[in-house]
Amino acid sequence: MTVPASDPKSVTGKPCAIAESVDVLVVGAGPAGLAAAIGAAARGLGVLLVDENPVPFRTMGDDVPLHFGQGMAASARNRNAMMEAFVASEPRIAEAFEAGVDLRLGTACWGLYANGPALGWMPGLVAGLADEESSVLVQARHVILACGRRDMGLGFPGWEKPGVMGATAALNLATRYDAFGPRTVVVLGSNTEALTTALALHEAGVTIAAIVEQAPEPIGDADFLAKLRAGGTEILAGHVVREAIGRDGVEAAVVARLDGEGRPVGEERAIACDGIVLAVGATPVIDLIDAVGCKVAFQAERGGYAPVLDASQRTSLANVYAVGDCAGLWAAKTRDRTIAEAEAARAVAALGEGGVSTEAAPPPAPSYDISAYRLAWVRASVIEARAEFHVCQCEEVTAREILEVRPPRYLDWQNEHRNDRSLSALLGEGPPNPDQVKRLTRAGMGPCQGRRCREQVAALLALGAAQPLSAIPLAGYRAPVRPMPLAMAAHVPEAPEQAEHWDTWFGMHAQWVPFWEVPARYTVAGNDATGPVASE
């Protein structure tokens, strides 16, 4: 659909530089993504499957796409070895090749665009793809998103030290790449995802020193707990990590018991370890889903904010589907990959006008209140922390600055009239929207794009308003959803019609003066910005 441009200087109605077109684009080469790609290829459709893994070592250092926490072994620097390990870790990758799928590893989908109120001139579904060398635009008739999961961050003094990392990153490094650095770890959380990760790390030769759980009793699978106990793991319910200590990395986790109000009490003790794995809550990766405009909602049975789907995995946007962990997380899906593969089969069956809808049982209700559980972790670990620390490590923003919506330090903000109150006393004042917090404090605007602090910020605002997490709006996602060098934009060519007015935006006069036109006596106040610009 092409809409005539109302402003000749606008890009509206001007052609996009589409590098190629495919029938089906699948994003994510996990169990669900591979099943979708192989199934679509079996129907005779042209399929392009992309996965950003294995990401470069430098990207891992920026905690993208997961919270790696500098927990990578030296072998992660070997790009070829990482690629070979990734392919060998999933037998269906070879099956996808044999099925004729165009599989591109190390290629990230940084943006997805669809026709809508602000983009009615788009030719259809268009995705931005980038590898280490180039960036292109690809048009697709159908898009199946299988973007996976990531972990909720949880701060405490010392959590910026190398060795504090998310459970999904730890699991991938240990089981897919054999590149997990720490040898002895403490795992925070006792839900099924946490215990599954702990068992997998144990099988990979990692010592699980302790499972630390703030709830009075562990909440995960009893059989998993029994296996961990039998392997020598200490189960510490009603405890919290007070600090990660060490010089160049984690050397020990200081833990303390919690009282009935969730406050640390009594003597503290140090558990020797060189890694702390954060597994208090896994969340669907919905950055592309939200950025393209699909409807999302807080769904406790799906692990938090997740896309709203019909029985065939369709999102609210035509021809966009979500499968696997990005479509929702629950304990049974974590244990059994065939559930994700069945979601992929339903999406493939619904492709095209002759698609067949199939019914599926809805996810079961969680066995615990995930909102109350995650808020309890943030209260015990962040609000009751023994000292201030940066909840947003990239932009160095503390919990107090988030609750007070305090501007960044570089603006030299001087109003300290509320600093005489404790952090706990700040709770109870209604929260602003998380996007307001992001704009005013910069929390979540760093290189990791909020992957370590996003859920903590929402939890702090929920605690501040005495509301559940479901009452806090989702902080919006925008493309590019992956950090990219600015130079990568140059790889996407512009049509001559787009470049014609490159020096003006919507008729706005240039705010700069070329050096060859600057008069001998020049002041900004005397600059005449009312005349014609070069492209006119």
Automatic annotation (TrEMBL):
What SUPFAM superfamilies does UniProt report for this protein, alphabetically?
FAD/NAD(P)-binding domain (SSF51905)
- Tell me where the transmembrane regions lie: none
Domain of life, per lineage: Bacteria
Task: List the InterPro entries hit by this protein, alphabetically.
Answer: BFD-like_2Fe2S-bd_dom_sf (IPR041854), FAD/NAD-bd_sf (IPR036188), FAD/NAD-binding_dom (IPR023753), Metab_Enz_Cyan_OpOx_G3PDH (IPR051691), SoxA_A3 (IPR041117)
Keyword entries, A-Z: Oxidoreductase
Please list the residue ranges annotated as the SoxA A3 domain.
Answer: 427-490
Question: Do you know which Gene3D superfamilies this protein is assigned to?
Answer: BFD-like [2Fe-2S]-binding domain, FAD/NAD(P)-binding domain
Q: Which residues form a coiled coil?
A: none
Residues in FAD/NAD(P)-binding domain copies: 23-346
Q: Where is the signal peptide?
A: none
Can you say what this protein is called? FAD-dependent oxidoreductase
Q: Which organism is it from?
A: Bosea vestrisii
